[in-house]
Amino acid sequence: MKVILREDIENLGKSGELVTVKDGFGRNYLLPRKKAVLASEQNLRQLEHEKAVITARNAKLKGAAEEQAKKVGSIKVTIKRKVGEQDKLFGSVTALDIAEAVASAGQTVDRRAIHLPEPIKTLGNFEVELRLHREVTAKIKVEVAAE
């Protein structure tokens, strides 16, 4: 199935691109969520017309992401957890915990923007990457302390 993406989708393409996807993915995920439209003649003509709008919107989103990166980059968050032997945590610190801690510090961050390869399971200082836009990233300093 050929579809035109209406927004950026990781590992698939950028908004405005014409991509080929499996029928089920297009029919059950992309089309109902309005992330893509079918690639018909009329939609292709409309796409050419909307490319300028899409690039302007992407530039605006990138500018907002850069501004947010400046604000968030200076934040240092402390998360307190119960600790067992050898400074191992009971449980772990996840992206949701970091997002809540950043929110309590005064900034809102989507938990899906927090790139945490694996949950934090030990005490210490960590640098966590925020992917605010495909071209804009920021770093947050996270300190995990004993309760």
TrEMBL record:
GO MF entries: rRNA binding; structural constituent of ribosome
PROSITE patterns documented for this protein: RIBOSOMAL_L9
A cellular component term, taken from the record's GO annotations: ribonucleoprotein complex
Highest taxon in the source lineage: Bacteria
Swiss-Prot/TrEMBL GO biological process terms: translation
Protein's job: Binds to the 23S rRNA.
Protein name, entry field: Large ribosomal subunit protein bL9
Organism: Myxococcus stipitatus (strain DSM 14675 / JCM 12634 / Mx s8)
Gene transcribed to yield this protein: rplI
